[in-house]
Specification:
- This protein is mainly alpha-helical.
- The mean pLDDT is about 95.
- About 45% of the residues are buried.
Length: about 220
């Protein structure tokens, strides 16, 4: 977060270490708040990672934390009159991330494969998916502030591929999760490969969009 603010934040932020520290500190609380919402989506850092030593959950939740960080950082990139605009943009992006995660959970029950089956491939695949949509949604909320309406419009215009990626992930999850015939899916084929595909698609979309409005040259 701090590196992104230092390189691409608003002019008054880039030149003020105190502002960078404040927004980074706020981002830490933002991330902690998001982590407390993760159990509602089927994964808990304390229960699944700390207590049960579940590596699959660790992979998925690490991706989730990175995704929230990317979205928060994106919401803080660009010029704006107050910190409210930063938090509004980051809030829109974070809400979108959690909604897409919820849709995938409702449609494919990914948490079952991760928490009950302890399937590492599912955890890696889920982590890659979350980072990919975090990249897309973080980019969608980046840029100079105009208004709340403009932020929502830009979010939909630039962030819709995250929904398409969720639609792609639904059948992938159904096909790649553990089954009677394949109780232990290979991590490389069923975890890393789909994760790389998700990230490649997200990176391609970011390359297509190019620089956000007000990006420092």
């Amino acid at each position: 977060m701090g590196v992104a603010l230092h390189l691409w934040g608003a002019v008054e932020v880039r030149g003020n270490p105190g502002e960078i520290l404040f927004l980074t500190f706020a981002g830490g609380f933002w991330l902690i708040g998001a982590i407390h919402l993760f159990p509602w989506l089927g994964l808990s850092w304390e229960a699944d990672v700390v207590e049960r030593k579940n590596g699959a959950a660790c992979a998925a939740l690490s991706g989730a934390m990175l995704a929230v960080t990317l979205v928060y950082a994106g919401g803080n990139l660009g010029e704006g009159p107050t910190h409210w605009e930063n938090f509004f943009s980051a809030g829109v992006g974070t809400a979108g991330l959690l909604v897409l995660w919820l849709l995938l959970e409702l449609g494919a029950k990914v948490s079952v494969s991760i928490t009950e089956e302890r399937d590492l491939a599912s955890g890696v695949r889920m982590g890659g998916f979350l980072v990919a949509i975090g990249l897309i949604l973080g980019r969608a909320v980046a840029g100079d502030w105009v208004s709340e309406e403009a932020t929502i419009r830009d979010f939909v215009r630039d962030g819709w591929p995250a929904l398409a990626l969720c639609a792609l992930a639904l059948p992938v999850e159904r096909l790649a999760r553990p089954s009677r015939g394949r109780p232990f899916p290979a991590v490389k084929a069923f975890g890393l490969f789909p994760a790389v595909i998700y990230l490649a698609l997200a990176s391609g979309w970011l390359w297509y969009l190019g620089a956000w409005e007000g990006m420092p040259r």
